[in-house]
Write a structure and sequence with these properties.
With 273 residues, the protein is of the alpha/beta class. The chain is built from seven helices and 14 strands. The chain has one domain: 4-Layer Sandwich (Metallo-beta-lactamase, Chain A).
Length: 273
């Protein structure tokens, strides 16, 4: 299993000299499971992923959405492979507020928000509606879905392929009680990609406003959950747009003191399992 990070920032893109190392693109992860390409979320990072897929012949792949907040969908209109008729894309996501998956994604491509409608995407696109507590067969991979605690809802995913396991748990908030869904999703995983938007001090409002109820977690919770669930490697994820490279590096160093196999995600990072 090949994993590549195309965007690891949360909330909104944050380019600039203070974020150039870890990157400023929002959520997008590429998994290659044998001949199957599976993309998780279409934040701004998916634009560069799309460019990398050009010139290699017809593209066949899957795109799975955790939820539809702007930072996870804003790159879809700029995903060039979706406009090429010879390509095929299977898109997975939840139905929300009485709207189908296709209607939700098309919404951001309607006037006055965007000048090009979704109908301009000429690739062969199939829309598959999913929900929590499901098991999906995506190519040769098995993808299990788990509910995450986040405003408007979110899905976490456990991907199993050829003996390797990756858990993608973006946008989830912890409480004082262990989240059985996150524990089960992370159990024994080879790579745990987990929401660490805040520190405990930020989350609890020490020195600033409380972030409780905002739908995100902390690096302290990440290492605790990783140790309890037998995670092999932890990837700090969904960096706050105000966190500089220096801040994220400090979070990474503190995390490693508690859980050695920790790295902070950065745009362009590749991991082979």
């Amino acid at each position: 299993m090949f994993v590549k990070i195309w965007g690891c920032r949360g909330s909104l893109p944050s380019p600039g000299p203070n974020t150039s190392y870890f990157g400023g693109n929002t959520s997008c992860v590429e998994l290659r499971c044998g001949g199957e390409t599976i993309i998780f979320d279409a934040g701004s990072g998916i634009r560069e992923l799309g460019q990398s897929l050009l010139g290699g012949g017809p593209f066949r792949g899957s795109l799975i959405f955790s939820h539809y907040h702007w930072d996870h969908i804003m790159g879809l209109p700029f995903f060039t492979p979706a406009y090429i008729p010879s390509n095929s894309l299977r898109i997975y996501g939840e139905k929300k507020d009485g709207k189908s998956l296709q209607e939700i994604l098309a919404g951001q491509m309607q006037a006055p928000y965007f000048p090009v409608p979704m109908q301009a995407m000429k690739a062969n696109m199939e829309f598959v509606e999913i929900g929590p507590d499901m098991t999906l067969q995506v190519g040769g991979a098995v993808v299990k879905t788990f509910p995450a605690y986040h405003p408007n809802g979110c899905l976490a995913f456990r991907i199993e392929y050829d003996g390797a396991v990756v858990t993608y748990a973006t946008d989830t908030e912890h409480t004082n009680v262990r989240d059985a869904n996150m524990f089960n999703a992370a159990q024994g995983t080879d790579l745990f990609i987990y929401d660490t938007t805040y520190t405990d001090k930020e989350f609890n409002g020490i020195g600033g406003p409380s972030r409780k109820g905002w739908g995100h977690s902390t690096w302290e919770e990440a290492v605790k959950l990783s140790r309890e669930s037998g995670v092999k490697r932890l990837l700090l994820w969904h960096h706050d747009p105000t966190h500089t490279d220096a801040f994220v590096s400090k979070m990474e160093a503190l995390s490693r003191k508690v859980f050695k196999e920790t790295r902070a995600a950065r745009d362009g990072m590749t991991i082979v399992l």
